[in-house]
């Protein structure tokens, strides 16, 4: 879906959307106008300034992403010059150890960071050849993300140099049942168990943690994908470690994944809520979907509505139709499998929501909510290794259905 189709889909006029996005960005301080050159650099950091804690980058075949992490949200502005893109972070100070990065990937030469004035940190991206860029934010912790696109003059070795946090399993693919199933153009699938490390995700009244359940399901699913489909599966995490949301899609883009599946377990204040649902990235159609996105994004409803206002810009490369199709196949197959062990399980269907973890993914990508940890019966189910196995089987069968339907369409 291109921008015009998306706007039409919303039933709004383009200028209205742009105005809305503008207003939301202005409210975030992203468009605040202030003099280009602030005062002289001070000697000691002023009290109350927010530390800039990390500067990172990822080079993927499609774009280069730079992330600036801070302890708290700050106001910032960005400016583009012919050979540079720079950001001024207001009320910030640079933590010792945060240093310039030499990139040299054909899009960016370097990223430089410095305390520009007593209360301003300036980040400068030295451009090689770029066509387009986007600046947006993530929260908890607050990060400013800059995605830069263009025609790269040099190749990025997408499969060799895997990000250190991705743990690809041995490549020995056992192509069982050759001839029976043809993976077609789907060569690699990234499985993303939600949360991890200091982030437990949803926790049941009895202490069952989402991060543990979804890791079990994810590891099981990856193995089934390798053995039963003969397709490479890469885990964003295969242990109990924390990964930032934007790192997860960056891994998928970097390893050249053809599909991305994020696995979660739901929770609701309404203890009666239960069932299975599958999401793809889009504006939330219901308050419930927006609330779930806020929870999975680790942010507030207010931030979700800000994200929604700029979502159509962030979705430029999102495979909307393919993702909806994949979500459909997975939800259908997952519900069918789950029912074989738990006949009373509820089918909540395919839904859409503004999930950060799907933003920036360039391949069909979905988020599966396997059941509710806040619901007594669902929790029992999620804890049961038998149900975890059925869930992995169900998602696998949905992926198989998706791939099979692709080969029918494309011959
Ligand atoms: Zn989750």
Features:
411 residues, alpha/beta, Immunoglobulin-like, Aminopeptidase, 3 domains, 7-stranded mixed β-sheet, 5-stranded mixed β-sheet, 17 strands, globular, disordered N terminus, binds zinc ion
Short précis:
By secondary structure, the protein is of the alpha/beta class. It has helices spanning 3-10, 14-28, 210-229, 245-254, 287-297, 301-314, 320-341, 376-383, 385-410; strands spanning 50-59, 64-70, 75-80, 84-90, 92-94, 101-102, 108-117, 120-127, 132-138, 143-149, 167-168, 188-193, 232-235, 259-266, 276-281, 347-353, 365-372.
Q: Can you describe what's shown?
A:
By secondary structure, this protein is of the alpha/beta class. It has three domains: about 1-25, no CATH class; about 30-150, Immunoglobulin-like; about 165-410, Aminopeptidase. It has nine helices and 17 strands. The chain has a seven-stranded mixed β-sheet with strand order 11-13-12-14-17-15-16, with helices on both faces. Strands 5-1-2-10-9 form a five-stranded mixed β-sheet. The longest helix is centred in the last third of the chain and has 26 residues, at about 385-410. The two termini are about 25 Å apart. It binds zinc ion (ZN). Zinc ion binds near residues 195 and 210. The site of zinc ion (ZN) has 6 residues, from loops.
């Amino acid at each position: 879906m291109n921008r015009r189709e998306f706007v039409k889909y919303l039933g709004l006029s383009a200028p209205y959307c742009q105005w809305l996005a503008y207003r939301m960005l202005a409210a975030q301080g992203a468009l605040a106008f202030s003099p280009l050159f602030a005062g002289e650099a001070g000697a000691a950091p002023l009290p109350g300034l927010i530390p800039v804690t990390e500067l990172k980058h990822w080079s993927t075949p499609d774009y280069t992403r730079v992330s600036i992490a801070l302890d708290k949200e700050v106001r910032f502005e960005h400016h583009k010059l012919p050979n540079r893109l720079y950001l001024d972070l207001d009320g910030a100070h640079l933590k010792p150890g945060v240093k310039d990065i030499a990139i040299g990937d054909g899009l960016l030469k370097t990223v430089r960071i410095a305390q520009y004035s007593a209360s301003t940190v300036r980040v400068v991206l030295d451009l090689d050849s770029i066509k387009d860029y986007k600046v947006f934010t993530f929260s908890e912790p607050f990060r400013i993300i800059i995605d830069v696109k263009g025609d790269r003059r040099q190749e990025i070795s997408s499969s060799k140099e895997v990000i250190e946090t991705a743990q690809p399993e041995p490549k020995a693919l056992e192509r069982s049942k050759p001839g029976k199933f043809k993976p077609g153009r789907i060569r690699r699938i990234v499985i993303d168990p939600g949360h991890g490390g200091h982030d437990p995700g949803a926790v049941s009244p009895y202490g069952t943690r989402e991060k543990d359940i979804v890791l079990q399901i994810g590891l099981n699913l990856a193995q089934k994908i390798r053995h039963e489909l003969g397709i490479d599966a890469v885990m964003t995490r295969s242990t109990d470690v924390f990964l930032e949301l934007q790192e997860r899609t960056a891994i998928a883009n970097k390893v050249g994944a053809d599909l991305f599946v994020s696995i979660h377990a739901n929770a609701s204040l309404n203890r009666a809520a239960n069932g299975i649902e599958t999401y793809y990235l889009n504006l939330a159609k219901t308050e419930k979907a927006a609330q779930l996105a806020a929870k999975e994004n680790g942010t507030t409803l207010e931030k979700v509505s800000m994200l929604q206002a700029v979502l159509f810009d962030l979705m430029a490369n999102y495979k909307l139709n393919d993702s909806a199709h994949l979500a459909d196949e997975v939800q259908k197959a997952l519900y069918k499998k789950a029912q074989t062990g738990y006949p009373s399980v509820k089918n909540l269907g395919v839904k859409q929501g503004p999930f950060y973890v799907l933003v920036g993914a360039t391949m069909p990508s979905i988020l599966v909510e396997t059941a509710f940890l806040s619901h007594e019966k669902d929790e029992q189910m999620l804890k049961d290794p038998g149900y975890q196995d059925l869930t992995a089987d169900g998602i696998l069968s949905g992926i198989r259905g998706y791939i099979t339907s692709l080969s029918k369409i494309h011959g």
